[in-house]
Specification:
Blueprint: E1 2-6, H1 10-21, E2 26-28, E3 33-36, E4 49-54, H2 64-79, H3 99-115
Antiparallel strand pairs: 1-3, 1-4, 2-3
Amino acid sequence: MYIAILGRLPALSLAELERLYGSRRIQRISSSTAQIDHPAFDFDRLGGSQKAGRVVMTLPAGSWSTVNKKITQHYLKTWQHSTHKITLGISVYDWSIKPRDIQALGLALKQQLRQH
């Protein structure tokens, strides 16, 4: 499962996704995002979407502190024994979170991973 951040013309971005992967495999999640359920998803084929990523977890709507905790737990468990460099980007869409709070999550996760 993947998620795409739709471009400047969301309807056009959505139409492109539906044309490439079939309308049954695309679900609009919000005004700026769509979910793609296709094993051969390829972002390089898209011209109308800004970003895309693989869905690693789905959480019910809640507070930032709850989401922050779940993300930290997930990645600590996933990467606690990793010996190579890890690149992780954290973006928040359609939610009023301060950029410094998102950055703090990334920094805290990085610090905790170094301790393991």
